[in-house]
Design brief:
The protein is mostly helical and 414 residues long. It is 78% helix and 0% strand.
């Protein structure tokens, strides 16, 4: 067999493996929705993740690729090691062990995907999986729950936490927006509107805020050097926000799903209202949990009580074993200021390098999209959810690191 024939066979195998990886990655995203939060079914999601890892490793063997890490991944490795180290001082070492193993698996997945994604085509192919995911999940939810409001069942709650379902759909909607701006195809705009509609039906305030902020912020980043355009973006943003406020508060259909869930934000200090409504009590409890966590952090500020041990402290005082619903507090209580610095240094390294590397990119829109999402995780989601152990966050972080690497490679090649 000739040398050229061998090259053709090898390229054919590589092409097929890439297609298989794209399909498995899409199936993995769907498995996070269908299996990851269902009792006894997490094994199926983990199995698909294992198949994905095996295929990526096979791709490395075929291409004789070395596995490399950058500064952000090195910091992530240190963060995971520090998490394991907290076994030695944790209140509940079992919680630490389980959480640390989860972080280690996510770290391995991140390193492998980071090394696999070495050009824009691979990155966009994996990003497109989010669009497929969003469409499939949206259709499934509508067929499962219908479009009528139910007082007894929150939209999507039987399949897991509706907030986390909505967050994944938020990421799908943001990537739909990217594809719409890049390719100007109406189907991406329709998908974006469809996903926002589904997010509203889940009743997730944080996801709706996250989505709208990102859409506006991406447009701002695109036009940030033009004062007139910035003013126009501001006016359009105010109009859009006003329209959404009108829709969710004045149209009963949307009010039932999500409007009434926004009221606690505006009525928090009205104690009488707080005592009468579950929604208000829920907001009040979240604030109490943050104050509780911050006071515990002050008692042991440097190394904390062991990762995921906030729930032990809260259970001791309030007889409820739950997490803090705040990424800042969860890390400060679990790993102290040291773990907190390691984690957020990773994100600030990414934010700094995305824009810097975009100067040499032929896809600045992708930089703005990824920058906006990471920025939102740091400054919006950190107050609302726990995400340091989130698979969705890990994937977005890996996409961002890969984008930076691709641009750096292009600079070197020039």
């Amino acid at each position: 067999m000739s040398f050229m024939s061998n090259i053709k066979i090898r390229n054919s195998i590589v092409f097929n493996i890439e297609n298989i990886i794209n399909i498995i990655f899409c199936l993995y995203l769907l498995s996070l929705f269908f299996f990851s939060e269902r009792s006894g079914m997490t094994i199926y999601s983990n199995l698909i993740a294992l198949i994905l890892i095996i295929n990526v490793l096979f791709y490395f063997i075929i291409n004789r690729k070395e596995i490399k890490v950058n500064l952000a991944l090195i910091l992530n490795i240190i963060f995971v090691l520090f998490s394991f180290l907290s076994l030695t001082w944790a209140l509940d070492s079992n919680l630490v062990l389980v959480k640390s193993i989860t972080l280690f698996i996510l770290l391995c997945l991140s390193i492998l995907l980071y090394n696999y994604i070495d050009d824009y085509k691979k990155l966009r192919n994996l990003m497109f999986s989010f669009l497929i995911y969003g469409f499939v999940v949206g259709i499934y939810l509508i067929f499962s729950y219908g479009l009528e409001y139910s007082y007894d069942v929150r939209f999507g709650q039987d399949l897991g936490n509706p907030n986390y379902i909505a967050i994944s759909l938020s990421l799908s909607s943001i990537f739909s927006f990217y594809y719409f701006l890049k390719y100007r195809r109406v189907r991406f705009l329709f998908l974006l509107l469809f996903l926002i509609f589904i997010i509203i039906l889940t009743g997730s305030r944080k996801s709706l805020i996250f989505t709208l902020f990102n859409l506006i912020f991406i447009i701002f980043l695109i036009n940030r050097k033009n004062v007139k355009k910035i003013f126009k973006v501001f006016v359009i943003s105010v109009c859009l926000i006003s329209i959404f406020i009108f829709l969710i508060f004045k149209i009963d259909y949307f009010y039932q799903f999500i409007g009434k869930r926004f009221e606690p934000i505006f009525m928090y200090y009205n104690k009488e209202t707080v005592e009468k409504s579950f929604e208000y009590k829920n907001t009040y409890e979240r604030v109490k949990m943050i104050k509780f966590g911050f006071n515990k952090f002050l008692s042991k500020p440097f190394i904390g009580y062991g990762i995921d041990n906030y729930r032990v402290l809260y259970n001791h005082d309030y007889k409820i074993k739950t997490y803090s619903h705040n990424n800042f507090i969860e890390l400060l209580v679990g790993l102290g200021i040291i773990g907190f610095i390691f984690f957020y240094t990773i994100l600030f390294v990414v934010l700094t390098n995305i824009i810097r590397s975009s100067y040499y990119s032929n896809d600045k829109l992708l930089a703005y999209t990824l920058y906006s999402v990471i920025f939102s995780y740091v400054f919006i989601f950190s107050w609302m959810i726990i995400y340091y152990d989130s698979k969705w966050y890990t994937i977005i972080l890996t996409f961002s690191l890969s984008y930076i690497k691709i641009n750096n490679m292009n600079i070197i090649n020039k």
